[in-house]
């Protein structure tokens, strides 16, 4: 069928049992392909320099008007007369666009690196979020434009904003990991961040531990919190009972109202990292031999270690086992799966104690500091903490009772 392609023509077109073309009377090769389903698509039919017949898709009638389609067909016809294979040219441009999309920081991060990180890095999701959180403004940039000058400027601004050197180093390290993989996988020819060196920080790191008075205070607040939650549960169930609602589980006879107290006290007595607490399973606890196993698959060092349980730890786990949700995890989430956050509960208890400059991780420092101050050898502390290198444990050396004075006194005549 041959007709001038206009809006009127579209209204007159009928669908048949097989696909057919309506060829325009004005522009050679400009046509409308009508399918049995009723879909109608504009094409420009032409022959390339080798004499091969090609079809350049212009668009569908729902997205392109006849006038717009005609203008595109006219322009592309001119390109064909100038020796351009418009269909092949489109494929090249699409490939280039796709390559460019993947070669931006955001494109490579989400389309390539993310899948690898989630499969091979223990904290892959956290690594991705760190890059997104800090360098989202660089997402549209080609990878090679995420260079040393750009990151040096970002680093200077962060330091001026009061962000610690340790945090800045970690943020940049997460970004450098992404760029390094782009080089390794031949996405880019060189690493534009190769000259960025981490900021120098004290090798001892931050050591903040609870004083005896602070520990006593936090234990008191934990007890008060448990009692308040129990009374609240009793009051709530009384209200629900009067109205015929289903009651919440009774916790009045339980030692702990929820997971916060046992997690906090167990950390003080074992020095476990927060992630190690969350990953802890009942199969890792041996109440008879009084030992706790930190599996290498879930530990930061990748090494399995065994921690003896003192009397308080043992009692905490026995009491918690009686009242906790049955399942594989010692401290499960409400659905029985792995818990991954206690931020809200911890922040609330910390603020109630008015203890300043103290994080959950400092409970681990408290465990280590108390051991060192009681004369436990640093290498033993290292093994209990799961440090791969004694240098990390040396941050607690200054707490040892007169260890330097005793060493120097050996020189006395």
Q: Would you mind describing this structure in some detail?
A:
This protein is of the alpha+beta class. The chain has 3 domains: 80 residues, Integrase, DNA-binding domain (Double Stranded RNA Binding Domain, 2-Layer Sandwich); 82 residues; 195 residues, Intergrase catalytic core (hpI Integrase, Chain A, Orthogonal Bundle), CATH 1.10.443.10. The chain has 16 helices and 7 strands. Strands 1-2-3-4 form a 4-stranded antiparallel β-sheet, with helices on one face.
In short:
This protein is α+β, with helices and mostly antiparallel strands and about 425 residues long. It is about 50% helix and about 10% strand. A four-stranded antiparallel beta sheet has the order 1-2-3-4, covered by helices on one side. The chain has a three-stranded antiparallel beta sheet with strand order 5-6-7, with no helix packed on it.
Q: What's the structural blueprint in terms of helices and strands?
A:
Layout: H1 7-12, E1 20-23, E2 30-34, E3 40-47, E4 53-60, H2 66-81, H3 86-102, H4 105-120, H5 124-135, H6 148-160, H7 165-184, H8 212-242, H9 260-270, H10 274-279, E5 285-286, E6 291-294, E7 305-308, H11 311-323, H12 343-353, H13 362-373, H14 378-385, H15 390-393, H16 403-409
Antiparallel strand pairs: 1-2, 2-3, 3-4, 5-6, 6-7
Helix pairs in contact: 4-5, 4-7, 5-7, 8-12, 9-11, 9-13
